[in-house]
Amino acid sequence: MKIEERRVHVELGDRSYDIVIGLELLDRLGDLAKEVGIPTTSSCLVVTDANVAGAGHLEKALASLQKAGYKASEAVIPPGEESKSLSQASVLYDKAFEAGLDRRSAIFAIGGGVVGDLAGFIAATYMRGIAFVQVPTTVLAHDSSVGGKVAVNHPKGKNVIGAFHQPKLVVYDISTLGTLPAREIRSGVAEVIKHGLIWDADFFTWMEASIEKVCSLDPEILADLLARSCSVKAAVVEKDEKEDNLRAILNFGHTLGHAIESLSSYGTYTHGEAIAIGMVFAAELSLQYGRIDRDTVERIRNLFIRTGLPTEIPSDLDPVELLNLMRQDKKATGGKLTFVLMSAIGHVDVVKDADEATVLELLRRLGRNEQ
Ligand SMILES: NC(=O)c1ccc[n+]([C@@H]2O[C@H](COP(=O)([O-])OP(=O)(O)OC[C@H]3O[C@@H](n4cnc5c(N)ncnc54)[C@H](O)[C@@H]3O)[C@@H](O)[C@H]2O)c1
Ligand SMILES: O=C(O)C(=O)C[C@@H](O)[C@H](O)[C@H](O)COP(=O)(O)O
Ligand SMILES: [Zn+2]
User: Fold this and answer.
1) What is the ipTM of this complex?
2) How far apart are the CA of 329 and the centre of ligand 1, in A?
3) Catalytic-labelled residue, pool 254, 291, 301, 331
4) Alpha helices (H) along the chain
5) Which end of the chain is less packed: N or C, by CB atoms within 10 Å?
6) Where is the 3-dehydroquinate synthase C-terminal domain (predicted)?
């Protein structure tokens, strides 16, 4: 099967790059890297996880890089959020030295958000920063591969040790999504829905009409969907690369979502599942503030339910502990609770001093599954 390749440009001056979306792009990875000027004269390192390697995607990527003249070494990390750690970063620095990477070398991140965030963090810091190429292999990674946020986790919180380091190129081979478990497809769709909710009401309405087709991975529909979702992300990042203000809207649903991930030790919910719960909570809080009506909240909840995502706050998570974690969120300053709240579908604002009593009451009520 053939589809027309889509390209989304991210305009950031001398840090600009393209997101190339299409089928069987791994076979062209080496040539695409050469086109953006990554030299073949220095060694490169391909980072992936064991599931992605086991699905055959690493082998393809290595073959393509070698065919294009790159001397490529590999580093395969254990799958899962636990790998986004300083100890795993240390293992990768050792690999980078062993592979002889120099300041003109590049790192290729082939995988989901975990691989992309971790490998990007190594690229941002090894020898004070070298080039990297994002090769997303999950639906969710349409978000993580774009925008340059790279990080590892710390016991104090998610993504709290990190940097802004833009990739040179994003190669999104949607053929790789064929081996992705169904749960991970749904998880990634949560960030797509987020992009509609924060920026593009028509996109959200289109998702309501097409959600079943989206989850069935029809390549044409998928390519359109991912290009449109990446375009929202690119538009926001172009306006505010380092999250001085506007970029915080990309954190819609993440104040509670990150707290849920952290309190459940990153083991129970995927990132997409946690932020789906967080987005429904943010919609409910927006309703409490009189910013949107009940029908809008239910429209949002229904789309998540139809996607197969959770929407209820887990009753085993203590609301007070969730609140404490939300106070430490990166968006919060002076310990004040910060939420991204809606004023309509497609429109959100950052609210910097949400009332703690209101938030706690809502956490308690929704944790008992009352509406
Ligand atoms: N940097 C950002 O802007 C940003 C944005 C969103 C999310 N994130 C981060 O991304 C991470 C979540 O990313 P994710 O959902 O992609 O998780 P992930 O990287 O853990 O991938 C999900 C699972 O799918 C497996 N997998 C990946 N590709 C596969 C394929 N093609 N075939 C078979 N299995 C495959 C992985 O091994 C893993 O088990 C979180 O750490 C989150 O914080 C970062
Ligand atoms: O790119 C951004 O900015 C985002 O907020 C995108 C989020 O989907 C993503 O989960 C990001 O990693 C969260 O950033 P953080 O700064 O809250 O850790
Ligand atoms: Zn996210």
Assistant:
1) 0.99
2) 21
3) 254
4) 29-35, 50-54, 57-67, 86-98, 113-125, 141-144, 182-199, 201-215, 219-239, 254-263, 271-288, 294-307, 319-327, 356-367
5) N
6) 188-332
Closest CA to 187 of 56, 55, 71, 279: 279
Confidence of residue 177 (pLDDT cuts 50, 70, 90): very high
Closest CA to 45 of 148, 127, 159: 127
Which ligand 1 atom is nearest residue 49's CA?
Answer: 37
Give the position of tokens 């990190």. 162
Token pair recorded at residue 231: 């375009």
Our CA angle for 132, 37, 2, nearest 5°, is 80
Q: How far apart are CA 166 and CA 149, in angstroms?
A: 8
CA distance 224 to 219: 9
DSSP code at position 314: P
Query: Which ligand has an atom closest to residue 255 CA?
Result: 2
Predicted confidence (pLDDT) at residue 259 exceeds the cutoff of 90:
yes
C-alpha span between 174 and 159 (Å, rounded) = 26
Total Cβ atoms within 10 A of residue 289: 16
CB 232 within 8 A of CB 203: yes
**Phi then psi dihedrals of residue 317, to 5 deg:** -95, 125
Return phi, psi of residue 104, to 5°: -100, 5
């719960």: which residue's tokens?
277
- Which of 77, 17, 23, 85 minimizes the C-alpha distance to 45? 77
According to DSSP, the residues that pair with 170 across neighbouring strands are: 19, 134
Residue 371 has pLDDT above 80, yes or no: no
- C-alpha separations of 95 from 37, 46, 66, 107 in Å: 23, 10, 18, 11
- At 182-198, the pLDDT tens digits run 999 999 999 999 999 99
